[in-house]
Amino acid sequence: MIAYPQFDPIIFEVGPLAVRWYGLMYTLSFLFAWPLLNYRAKRFMPQLTSDHLGDILIYTLMGIVLGGRFGYILFYQFDYYLHHPLAILRVWEGGMSFHGGLLGGIAACLLYSRKSGIPCLQLADLAFPIAPVGLLLGRIGNFINGELWGRVTDVPWAMVFPTGGPLPRHPSQLYEAFLEGVCLFILMWTLGNKPRPAGFLLGLFIMGYAVCRFLVEFVREPDAHLGLLALGLSMGQWLTLPMFLVGLGLLLRAQRKGAQAA
């Protein structure tokens, strides 16, 4: 067993202002995203100006944060937030849903596409290869917060989390950081390093995330108020199944369009 580092979720405080690791990870995600987005834009969409890229980043940020928060409320804690509406604003405490964030990010692409006239799938293919960076840092934020830990286990690298009871558990946040962050980034960046039919990279990202999340959920503790659902699968796994099908559909569509254009 490995001792869990006793992180303080608050980095420092200045009067009533508290800077938290979880919020810092979101900030770092977008700081790292900016040069990567610039690199991809210069290579694949050189017609985009710095103003375009700034707007894309702002739209994406708002879409992911709002979608992630309301997705968590809708999918995981609807009854709680219905009776505690002010708690919706306490995003620094955690409580973000990737599935909601994905929908919010796609909605942001659609909105900006209507504003700019740039096809939505091209915008998505430009931005989504960078998304695993945010997933990596977000999962590290979960680990520092000591939340979303795994199921009880006796593996040598198990940890006892402060809020997870006295038994050692899988550090599933780190598994997700590696699979959804590192591995998915390498896959996306490698296959996205040359022109692809519109929608290919978005489909690849959705499928890749769905597979990674589905596998990790077998060792991640399901939400206590939900438990395991039909067929012994968690809510996270059930939500990834339609994601996989959507991603597969986008991939097949992109390959068909690419074959027709060849």
Task: Note the main attributes of this structure.
globular; 262 residues; 62% helix; single chain; two-stranded antiparallel sheet; mainly alpha
Walk me through what this model shows.
- There is one protein chain.
- The chain has 262 residues and is mainly alpha-helical.
- It has one domain.
- It contains nine helices and two strands.
- A two-stranded antiparallel sheet has the order 1-2.
- A hairpin with a 2-residue loop joins strand 1 and strand 2.
- The longest helix has 27 residues.
- The relative contact order is 0.12.
- Pathway: Protein modification; lipoprotein biosynthesis (diacylglyceryl transfer).
- Its EC number is 2.5.1.145.
- This is Phosphatidylglycerol--prolipoprotein diacylglyceryl transferase.
- Belongs to the Lgt family.
Total count of helical runs of at least 4 residues: 9
- CA-based gyration radius: 19 Å
Tell me the β content. Answer: under 5%
The number of distinct β-strands equals 2
From the spread of the alpha carbons, the general shape counts as globular
Q: Which oligomeric state applies?
A: single chain
* SSE class: mainly alpha
Order of helices and strands: EEHHHHHHHHH
Share in helix: 55-70%
Largest beta sheet: strand ordering? 1-2
Straight-line N-to-C gap? 55 Å
Number of domains: 1
Q: Mean pLDDT across all residues, rounded?
A: 87
How does the major sheet shape up?
A: 2 strands, antiparallel
Unreliable spans: none
Family: Belongs to the Lgt family.
Binding site for a 1,2-diacyl-sn-glycero-3-phospho-(1'-sn-glycerol): 139
Protein name: Phosphatidylglycerol--prolipoprotein diacylglyceryl transferase
GO molecular function, one term: phosphatidylglycerol-prolipoprotein diacylglyceryl transferase activity
